[in-house]
Amino acid sequence: MSKAADLANQTAAEAVGAIRTVAAFGMEAALAAQFAAELRAPWRQFRRTALVTGLAFGASMAVLFMARALRARLPPAPCA
After folding, report:
1. Least CB-packed of 7, 11, 62, 73 within 10 Å?
2. C-alpha 26: how far from its chain's center?
3. Which of 4, 10, 12 has the alpha carbon at shortest distance from 39?
């Protein structure tokens, strides 16, 4: 995980650990906004990684299925 994601995780963990204090001071909305702001940069990075990984996997599957389709169209090999 990136350092930015670790920071967001730390913020959430601290808020959950001190939930009574957060609720007593009415800081739920402020902490939710802070958490969302801290997740923006890692979200972009994770989304980009997922897109590249998905495209690579899709391309490899397309090549595999095309190779099988071509093999299915070839005549059977003669027996020796």
Report:
1. 73
2. 32
3. 4
